[in-house]
Amino acid sequence: MKPNRLKGKSTQELAALLHVKGRDQLLEKFVSLGLPDKKSEEYRYFDIEKLLDADYRTLDYIPKSLQEGKKIEIVDGVVTTAPKGLRIYYEQCDAMDMDHFDPLYYLGHILNPNVIKIEIDGDAELELVHRFTQSNALIAYRIVLLNQSNRHATLYERFEEDNIADTLVLYGYDMHIAQDSTLRVVKTQHMQKQRYAMVASHRINVSQRANALLKSFDLGGDLGLQMLKVNLESYAHVEAGHLLYLNHASRRGTVSKIIHQGEHSTSQQEAKNILDGNARGIFDALIKVEHSAKYTKAHQNSKAILLHEDAYMVSKPQLEIYIDELEASHGSTTGQLDEKQLFYLRSRGISYVEARKMLVIAFANTLIETVKDSRHQEQISALFEEAFYSAHKELS
Amino acid sequence: MSKVLQIKDLHAKIGNKEILKGLSLDLEAGKVHAIMGPNGAGKSTLSKAIVGHYDVEVTEGDILYKGKSIKEMEPEERALEGIFLSFQNPVEIPGVNNAYFLRTALNAKRKHEGKEELNAAEFLRAMKQHLQELGMKSDMISRSLNEGFSGGEKKRNEILQMLILEPDVIILDEIDSGLDIDALRAVSEGINKMKNGKRTFLVITHYSRILDYIEPDYIHVLKEGRIIKTAGAELVAKLEEEGYDAIEEAQ
């Protein structure tokens, strides 16, 4: 299947082409947005056309009997393992966001109508591993994630792949964070060169007085984009942190829209980007404060360090505000490692590569240290070092 | 007389401006050499040239360390060979833990010397005594490197690095600047502890105050990019009394 063949098709033609029945509203929405190309605002800095022009094998997502394990494992879009007692099942998703900005959010729902639904009980701490084993495949699946009111749950998410090539993954969450609860999601993804590309299109609804803590640690190469749409009800809070460490000719980043709908809602978004080789980092983030969201607090900031003269950062923090009663700020800086600091470390016998690593980790640490669990924090630091050393080995 | 560092007809510039104009200087092993000179004479440029600072471009001449040219060496190679510069204004590095930095530097040196690297516990044990000697609080090594340190704390941290790295040639660039009497005494005691008859010191200073604590064997007067006079410690009094112009007139 070549996704680009869906371009310009009518609702009826799409339904016939993709064998979809009774989902007219979804198809209409996808048709109205159109398949993204390099002119699409959200995909302007990402090589989406190259990805959509490739010919992929499509997969059947046949549910398997679950094995019991400590983690949730989803292999090529099918749940294979889950902890005992966890409510995880498939169902046709009817509660979609019909106002999402990303056409691939809708395409994901069209290609795989059965979503994986996970209901987190109590103050659980879960680990989710996504695994990809198929080359030249289009893997599409979506997850609906629910938590309970007055509870504080955490989900650690990571990605593994076999020795595959040229696969495209379209996945994402529809997250419903219950009133007075906290959901913390920590995503770590170390992508290898040309194994798979990913567009992860999420929709997150943060109910009244709830907290969403969303941390992503994107390391390594290749193509990856996360599209976040966050709706904040009254007194809801989102804290989003994005760390990018990229090398090779990778294109990765975050395109986000955080929408303050309720009074006294707060958002704090911080991006730290470290770019090596001829990588391109993307931080295209809008915070919108609607008329209904009086007394909002909204802050966003992006900082980038370029380690190579060919590296490039696209940083677009934006505020769209319709009220006066609020507190808001945004900022963006791009620079290089401080020569004085680098020299100081080297003058003590620390090698150039090691000194750079120390400074880069120091820059990233403010985000890594927000991961409260020390085991996961150490894992992220170790992955970060691994990505750093492998990039230096290849660049030297 | 064994010469540990020989600077031969050194010309160096910063940007387009030539600062060192044919500077020659021999440092005798185990001795304390003091360089004195007016502002803009090239004292700091000399120290930067020796350690391979990126600001300084050596255009002519050579620097021999233990008989070998170090002109083309990277800064870290010079450090591993045993050259140490105590900075006038040590840079602050937020996010780099001081203990981690010190252990990384020490282990780089130990690895270079073919010794086993120290783990965190072994390192902290080794640190304890040095911290006491320098009157440093133990929490100073758990903070970010030099971040929020007072002038005195920064200088003490420089001396701490010197104590653990045990270099053969120590360059002290304006070590006394910004220090009160107590801090000056503590720093000087740390430096004097390093004297072992083999280690060589190059003390760069504007004022004679530090030389009351660290007794020099030789005084070199640097002016307009060249050494214009070398004498014993008695030259300090003359400089205090008559200034640098008098020295030039004596040439």
Write the SSE topology.
The complex is a heterodimer of chains A (396) and B (251).
Chain A: H1 11-18, H2 24-33, H3 48-52, E1 57-58, E2 67-68, E3 72-75, E4 78-82, E5 87-92, H4 103-111, E6 114-119, E7 125-132, E8 137-146, E9 152-161, E10 167-177, E11 182-191, E12 196-206, E13 211-220, E14 223-232, E15 237-246, E16 251-260, E17 266-275, E18 280-289, E19 296-306, E20 312-321, E21 326-335, H5 339-346, H6 352-368, H7 374-395
Parallel strand pairs in A: 1-8, 2-4, 3-7, 6-8, 7-9, 8-10, 9-11, 10-12, 11-13, 12-14, 13-15, 14-16, 15-17, 16-18, 17-19, 18-20, 19-21
Antiparallel strand pairs in A: 3-4, 5-6
Helix pairs in contact in A: 2-4, 5-6, 6-7
Chain B: E1 3-14, E2 17-28, E3 32-36, H1 43-51, E4 56-65, E5 68-69, H2 75-81, E6 83-86, E7 93-97, H3 98-112, H4 120-133, E8 144-145, H5 151-165, E9 169-173, H6 181-194, E10 200-205, E11 218-223, E12 226-231, H7 235-250
Parallel strand pairs in B: 3-10, 3-11, 6-9, 9-10
Antiparallel strand pairs in B: 1-2, 1-4, 4-5, 7-8, 11-12
Largest interface, Cβ cutoff 8 Å? A-B, 23 and 26 residues
| pLDDT < 50 runs, ≥5 residues of chain A | none
Strand content of chain A: 35-45%
Strand order in space, largest sheet of chain A: 2-4-3-7-9-11-13-15-17-19-21
What separation lies between the terminal Cα atoms of chain A? 39 Å
Shape field of chain A? globular
**Mean pLDDT rating of chain A:** 94
Helix-strand pattern of chain A, N to C?
Answer: HHHEEEEEHEEEEEEEEEEEEEEEEHHH
Low-confidence stretches of chain B: none
Rg over alpha carbons of chain B: 18 Å
Measured between the Cα atoms of the first and last residue of chain B, the distance is: 25 Å
Order of helices and strands of chain B: EEEHEEHEEHHEHEHEEEH
Assign the CATH superfamily of one domain in chain B. P-loop containing nucleotide triphosphate hydrolases
Task: Name the strands of the widest sheet of chain B in spatial order.
Answer: 6-9-10-3-11-12
Return the domain count of chain A: 1
